Each structure stands twice: as C-alpha cells, then as structure tokens.
Amino acid sequence: MNGNDPVATYRLQLRAGFPFPAAEAILPYLDALGISHLYLSPILKARPGSAHGYDLVDHGAIDPELGGMEALERLAAFARARSMGLLVDLVANHMLVGPPENAWWMDVLENGPASPFAAFFDVEWALSTPGGRGRLLLPFLGDWYGDALDRGEIRLAFEPETGSLRARYFDLDFPLDPKTYPAVLERGLDALKERLGPEDPGLVELYAVIAGFDRLPSRLEADPAAREARHRDKEILRDRLRDLCARREEIRRHVREAAGAFNGKPGDPAGFDEIHDLLERQAWRLAFWQVASDEINYRRFFNINDLAALRMENPEVFRATHALVLELLSAGLVDGLRVDHPDGLLDPSAYFHALRDAARARGIAGPWIVAEKILAPGETLREDWPVDGTTGYEFMNLLHGLLVRPGAEAAFDRIAKRFTGEGVSFDAVVYEARKEVALSTLASELSRLASLLHRAAGTDRHTRDFTWLGLREALAETAACFPVYRTYVSSRGVEEEDRLRIREAVERARAMNRRIEPPILDFVRDALLLETPPATLAFACKFQQFTAPVAAKAVEDTAFYRYGRLLSLNEVGDDPRRFGVAPGDFHEECRRRRRVHPRSLSATSTHDAKRSEDVRARLAVLTEMEEAWRIHVMRWSRINHRRRRMLGNRRVPSKQEEYHLYQILAGVWPPGLPEAAGGDLLRRVRDYMIKALREAGLHSSWKQPDEAYEEAVADFVARLIAPPAGKNAFLLDFVPFVRRLATFGFLNSLTQTALKIASPGVPDVYQGSEVWDFSLVDPDNRRPVDFALRRDMLDDLARRWDDPARRPRLARETLDDLPDGRAKMFLLWRGLDMRRRHRRLFLEGEHLALAARGPRAGHVVALARTGPGGVAFCATGRWFHGLLGGEPGLPLGEAVWGSTVVPVPEGPGNGGFRNVLTGELLAPQETPAGKVLRARDLFARFPVSLLLQESGGGGGRGR
C-alpha cells in the first residue's frame, strides 16, 4: 500500500466539447473534493463527433478530438503533480465499422478473407450469402438494396488522392476489390486510345496497371504466399494509378468518367445493372439495415450493426489492440483500466491473464484493473479472473435495496395491477423478452449456433436426425431460461457453478416448451457441458457469447421498460423481484468485498444507469408511503383521463406507460419548480418516454418507430407538465406531493453517500453527482456539468470549515436549504478527506456490522472499519418517512431517536470518536452489553454520522 492507492474515482464523460484540457482545468477542484483518480471514458480514437467514445476506430491513437497524445500527457502530468492518477475505460470487445478511419475494417472490405485483418473480426466467411460465399453482409442501407440503388443513392467514385475506387452511400465508403478495377478502368478505354494515340506513355502505363490488377490473386485464395503477393501488389498498383493520375489530367479525367459511367439515372432501372453486377463481385454485400437480424455474418456488440466484435482470443489481435494501452501504463500516464463488457469475449479469464502477463512483460507492476461485469443476485466474480474487482453495479443495487421497505411489496403488486389492469410477473416478462430477442433481434446469431450444433449432431448416428429447426428452437428456449448472463466453459473444462446453471436452464426450457423433443434438449445440455464430441467446444463458447447479449437486450433494454412495479429496482445488475435488502445481506457482501476485492469500485450512479442515484433514492421513499402513492396515482389518472388520445381503438398512452411516466416525473421533478414545467424538463421527459417506448417494443420500436403513437405520448407529457401555473389540476396535486417526497429522498441520498464512503471498495462519483443529480438514462446523463457552480460551493464550504469554532454548526447549516445540494457535497468532501488520511484503514480494514438497539433500531444501518490507523465508524438512518411519522423534517436529536443506541467496537485507545462532519468528540457510554453511542448524539446535527478514532499514522495525504 502507498499514497497512490485509490481513495475515490470521479467518472468523466469525455467528448469533443469536454476534452483533456477541460478535465485538466477541473483537477484542482476534484483534488480538493477528495478524488484520487479520474475515471475517464474511452480515450482512443473514436468516430468523429462521438458523444461517448465506445465507437472507437483506431486502437493505436489517442482521440484527436480530445486533444491527442500531447494533451493526455499534460493531463497525466498535472494529475501526478497532485498525487492523482487516471483510470481509463478500455473497449476490448468491439470497434466501429463504417467510417474510413477504421483502416482494419476497410482492408477487410477490400480484400475479404485475404485481408491480413480478416481474422481480427469475428466473421463467418463460410456462410453463404447471395452472390456466393466469402462475402461480408453490410446492413447499412436505410432502405431495401434495390430501391436504394434505383434511386442513385449508391454510386461509384474514384479517389485520385489514393488511387482507389469506392462505392459511396451518403457519407459511407466501401472500397472495391482491386481485382475488379479493370472492369471500371477499361470503360471507354478505346476512346482514350484514339485521343492519345497507342504509343502515349501514360496510356501504356495505364494498360500495364490494368493488367496488373487483373493478375492479382483472388480474395478467396487460401495460399499464404498468394495472399501476401496480393496485399503487396495491389498497394503498388494503386500507387502507380495515383501517380499516373497526378501527372496526367487526361488519365485522371478518364478514370473519373469511367467510374461515373457506372452510375445510372433514377427512373431508368436498367441503367443500374452494370453497377449492380460490379457490386456483386465485391467481398461485401450491401443490404437494408433490417436484414441484419436474419442474415448478418459478423458478430456485433449486441445488435448494433456498425459495432463489430473483435476476436480478442487471437494473440495477434490482442497485441495490435493493446500496444498503445500498455505503452500508456508503462510510461505512467495511466494507472488502471476499466475493461468494458468482458462478457462479450470468448474467454474473459484468458483475456485478463493475457493482460496481466503483457503488463508484467513490460515491467508494469500490478496495474489496477476492474471489470464491467454485471453479476446476477447470488453470483460472484470468477476467482480465476485476475482483476481487482468490478465497476460496482452489485454494490449500487445492494445499497439501494437498504432504502426499499420489503413490507410494501404486496401493496406495490396490488397498486400496479389495479392501475395497469395487468398482473404479469417479472419472470414472465423476462422470459418473453428473452425469447423475442433470441428469435428476432439476434436471430442471425441464433441461426449460426444452430448450424454449428447441427453439424456436430450429424457426426453421431444417435443425433443425426435432430433437425436444424428443432435445434434452433431448443437453443432459443435454453437462452430464454438462462439464470445469468453467461457461463465460462472453456478448453480448461466446465466448473461446477456453470454445470449447475446449464442444467437449470435446460430443465426450465423443458418445462416451458413441451413441444421440444426431450432428446434434443438432452443433446443441447450435453453439448454445453462438453459431454459430446470435441467439436462442440466451439459451439459452447459461442453460445456463451450469445446468452450475454440476449440477457442484456431482453432484461435491461426491454423488460425494464415493460415492467414498472417500482422503477428504482429496474437497474443494470439489479433484479426487480428483490424488493429490499436486509442489512445482514448488505454487511455480508461488504465483508466478502473486503476479503476478495477491496479495490472494486463502489458505484451509486454510472453512465449506463437507467436512473441516477438521487432519482432512485427518491423513488425508494414510495415504499414507505404506499397508500398515499396509491391514492395519488389513481387521482392523477382520473384527472388526466381526457388528456389521453385515441389512436384507432387504442387510448394513448397505455396504462402501463402512464404509470411509468408518473414514477419518472416523481423521480426527476426539481423540488423548487413551480406548478408548471416547460423547456428543458419537458424535453428531457419527452425524449425519455420516446426512448422507453422504443426499448419496450410494444407500441413502437427502434426498428419500426410508430411516429403517431410517439407523438401522442409526447403530447400527453406536454399536456401534463407544460400548461400555465395554477390552471392544471394534475400539477396542483402532484407538485406538493413530490416536494414532500423529495425531502425524504434527499435524506436517502445522504445515507447512500455515507455508506459508499465507509464500506469496502473505492467510492466512485459519477460526474456532477457530488450534488443532487436527477438524470435519466443516456443521453440525459451526459448533459454538461456546471463545474464552476460546484467549485464555488466547495470553496465556500472549505472557507467556513477553516474556522474551527464554526465547524460544529456547518453540518447543520448545509441542511437549511436541502434542494441546493450543499449537504451532499459537504458529506462527500469530509468523508473522502477521512478516507484519504486513512487509506490503509479503508482498503484493508475489517468490516464490522453494528446492530442498533432501542425503539428506532430498525431505522439505523451502522458499520465500523477496524485496522491500520484506527477505527472508522459510520451510522446512517433509513426509512425516514416512517421515522418522522410522514411529516417532512430532519431526523435530528432525541425527539426522533429516543433511547436508541449503536454499539461501537473497541478502538486503539480509550479516547472518544471524532465526528469528521462536525469536529466534535463523542464519548461512548459503558453498558452491560458493551460500549455504545446514543443515536441522538450521532444524529444531533446531521442525518448521518462519520466518526474516527485514530491510533496515529493515517497512511495518506489529507487536509
């Protein structure tokens, strides 16, 4: 352990409007806040104008829109000067394909299987497509291929600067196979010969270039030497063509006119025959984007057509994609990596071992590596993954679960059922969504799996009668019944954990679909367990890469928008069926984290979250006021009935969508906003609801948007929240309700923040959420952050803290105007200062669960950290609505807490505990059951308490 060990991370969403220099400008503020590491979104070269960086095009370059390598070096140096570091988001699974900036992909399009980069991408070249094998389906057209061609939208063009021929579709370029160049270059050649004469040196050179292109080995050539010759010679020939066109205007004009002659004229379909024939000879096949779900033959990131998956299990691919990243680590510019979506990799364990080995080979000692792994309830991170932990979804959801009152579950079932008229279980919603995704959105991936398994079945006389369709149905059913994102079967074998989950999935599939012949499901099970011939290893590994996107698309991006009992539980990595978390379960997970992965991130909001931490904290309060919630939503629905629009025989929005909307409004409504809203809030909620409609896929979808339905929902939103103040019966009832709700939500947020600070793991702060942040799913959570406002707020708190006499009052003063967010920033600032002074205590210290006693014991969650440097103590309240009898207020003092006490562990000395939020010293009381602190003292000035008893030598810098 040393002074560079992490205290807390701060996630920054970099983009052209917020590049490295902007991050550098706020470093002093983040350092003062207590942040030790900037947690940066991807920094490698991405699509021009990218809003997030996950659509990268070049693993070998720092994104120039962020400032490039020079700006990164300045940021790293500035961070290092403040004893801060950088944790960088690494995208290992996929790349953006489409823009010419992706040189690897362009080479694959040009040369097909003969490209030296063909093995970089996960392409099934053997799959037959119209026009023959060895072609790559490119589903990038906005309409059917023939219609787009007949409108002249696909055109042939010559690029004289590179000597290359390309097909163009709006802003997309598709390079032609150089072996097909002669078909273009020979067009009108006789006329050129007549003009220049047969002995013209330029013409002679052009003939030689054409002959050279014609002699190139085919892109389907398997011989390595021939492929190498093709790769070498086509570059030489293109350079010759480029230079010839640069020297001779007549030649350049000829090539341009020859290319243009292939482009037909709209209204004359026969005029497009030649360009169609030429396109059919390429290594790729252009297609309508909707064709992808059925016929695409490259693995994608989920169902995003222009994000193609990489074969990271190929050592050459690993070296090419990680050379720069390892250089950054070796040079000390980057301290750690957050690996995006490892479940997309063929063998995540092997990948992480390769990453560690590559770092050691460069002399990089133990880089901090966290995995973006979504763990289902009850699932733990694999022991054979050499990582420091996860990005913290499981912590985020356990922490939120403490704020949800389990006793309200039955009431919320009744409310949702009565309001919507539906009583479908989440199990049923997820099952249907998984089958839908497997059979439609990812149908092409499912078909490839069925083909793999069908070939394996054909090798045995006992299974050769299993049809492709029968196997496909069995695989879809098994994927729909899978209990986790994926298993991790590999050439190393099948772990017992995976064995149990595979058997569970197959048995559930058997129960859900009696049409499938039992022997077929037995064969699927045996193939996944590697209990059939060795040929099924490839199938088992590919199946794992299939179930992960099925789960993600079906659960996170579909079921979470169809099922809305309590939206704060519809979160990445959470399970809406888990209605509340017992403190004992929370503490057990904390002890496990400290023991296994003490440097896991402790997140409360992420860039992938459906709703920010403060929105979820507010919605959790509804579980304490279920009867009031029931009364109000029923009243709102009656008030707004006439605002719903009839579309045919449907009333819009649906009752499910209306219930969803009321929760969203309750979660995001600014408490200080009067009884009317427009502008920014209206736009945000309207955009969110349209995204929710398309994700749910019931009344609109991304594939087939129903614009009339979406417009009706958007109009409903506007009618609810945009009219003038005082004239809207809905808002006159809604706004007072949400103001009351918000007060308790603020207190919940403080509880989340305090427990994040004190628990095992590294606290992670999403950009802007150091004060209240009521963001929704992206792109809403990528809105610009007002750092000047936050810096001024922190400066003001620091000035007042510098007066020791004022410290006892400062905590209480931050509560005077709860909506301004100072209370949250104050708590985070003081808590991170404590962590920074005592790094070893919080990274190594034991986690002790402390059970309160007394009349309000059920409203207390408390813990202690014991170890190097002393004892840290954290006590927080929860279920504040019930604690305060439903009346908005502050849970402070004896009138609220009565005789409730919290036990404290034995510290390194006999002194008291210093409250890091007030500077006051609290002395434990001796009781027959041991030392205790009174809740009325712990919560005398602030709703949470952070205490410290030092033994000297905190182990880190602080102030």
Description of the structure:
By secondary structure, the protein is α/β, with parallel strands linked by helices. Among the domains are: 9-93 and 312-391, TIM Barrel, CATH 3.20.20.80; 113-129 and 141-289, no CATH class; 425-562, no CATH class; 625-741, Arc Repressor Mutant, subunit A, CATH 1.10.10. Helices cover 46% and strands 13% of the residues. The protein is built from 36 helices and 28 strands. A seven-stranded parallel beta sheet has the order 15-14-5-2-1-19-16. The chain has a six-stranded antiparallel beta sheet with strand order 20-21-22-28-24-25. Strands 6-13-12 form a three-stranded antiparallel beta sheet, with no helix packed on it. α29 (729-758) runs parallel beside α32. Mean pLDDT is 94; it is low at 953-959.
Q: How widely separated are the two ends?
A: 20 Å
Strand order of the largest sheet: 15-14-5-2-1-19-16
Q: Per the principal axes of the C-alpha atoms, what is the gross shape?
A: globular
Mean pLDDT, all residues: 94
Count of helical stretches: 36
Number of strands: 28
Helix content: 40-55%
Main sheet: strands, sense, barrel = 7 strands, parallel
Report the portion of residues in β strands. 5-15%
Uncertain runs are 953-959
| Spatial extent as radius of gyration | 31 Å
Structural class: alpha/beta
